[in-house]
Design brief:
Blueprint: H1 3-27, E1 33-37, E2 43-49, E3 52-55, H2 76-80, E4 93-94, H3 103-106, E5 109-110, H4 112-115, E6 126-127, H5 131-143, H6 158-161, E7 197-198, E8 204-205, E9 210-218, E10 223-230, E11 237-242, E12 252-253
Antiparallel strand pairs: 1-2, 2-3, 4-5, 6-12, 7-8, 9-10, 10-11
């Protein structure tokens, strides 16, 4: 091969290598988190996903936006008393196992009446997501390469929303609890932690198994729409549940 041709081949090879290196660096860029404060002055992380900005951890506030306290219903009997009281129930919250030890990791569990209170549970500039806003997040992740298998149809985004720790194991392919597809884990930066929830009867359930969040959308009397990640699922699940249950809250920027 002539020297001139050799230099041309080397130049092209270097260009391809450089472009590949740049492409990889963009693909593996660290997720950028910002810091904000809630109604109690607690700091929380935020993350941009598509056109939306989400809390990257569960709400911990014990106050409404105007400073009024959200009633602490840690006592099991008090919590249970709100069940089937749709017209008279009041907003309330609790911590896992009625203590503050899990506040930092799990955040608070709030009944839907606290979510729906006109005093607003979200800090200024934020709100509890509507069911449509949850769907917007889901569709963005599906169509932008966050499915565990790289497809862009169907909902397989759970692993990309889940934290790297604390989830119980599962053998289902692509599920959060399966160690397969490790590069997809929390790819979105949403960082879901499996703190479970508090049932309407007062029982604490599903630690290590699920993270459950309210939307603002009521369905029929006594139930509202929520979203859920489950250790043995590969999708972001949508369903209704009694409003007196205690679910986590993820706020979205106005």
């Amino acid at each position: 091969m002539k020297p001139d041709n050799m230099m041309w081949v080397i130049s092209i090879a270097f260009f391809i290598l450089l472009m590949g290196s740049n492409s990889c660096s963009k693909k593996n860029e660290p997720i950028s988190y910002q810091i904000e404060r809630d109604n109690d002055g607690n700091f929380f992380k935020t993350v941009t996903i598509g056109t939306q900005v989400w809390m990257a951890e569960n709400l911990k506030s014990t106050k409404y936006r105007n400073g009024d306290p959200i009633p602490n219903m840690g006592d099991e009997a008090t919590w249970r008393s709100q069940y089937l009281q749709d017209n008279t129930a009041i907003g309330g919250y609790c911590w896992y196992n009625d203590g503050t030890g899990y506040k930092k990791s799990y955040g608070g569990f709030y009944n839907w009446y606290a979510v729906n209170d006109s005093r607003q549970i979200a800090p200024p500039g934020w709100h509890v997501p509507t069911d449509v806003e949850w769907t917007t997040l889901e569709n963005y992740l599906i169509t932008n390469g966050y499915n565990y298998d790289g497809t862009k149809t169907e909902d397989k985004i759970a692993k990309a929303m889940a934290s790297t720790t604390d989830w119980l194991a599962s053998t289902n392919p692509g599920s959060i609890g399966n160690s397969d597809y490790p590069v997809v884990r929390n790819k979105s930066g949403f960082t879901a932690i499996p703190g479970g929830y508090r049932n309407y009867d007062g029982a604490f359930l599903n630690v290590g198994i699920s993270d459950d969040w309210w939307s603002t959308a009521a369905d029929t009397a006594g139930v509202a729409w929520f979203r859920n990640l489950y250790n043995s699922y590969s999708d972001l699940y949508r369903d209704t549940y009694p409003k007196s249950a205690g679910f986590s809250v993820r706020c979205i920027r106005d």
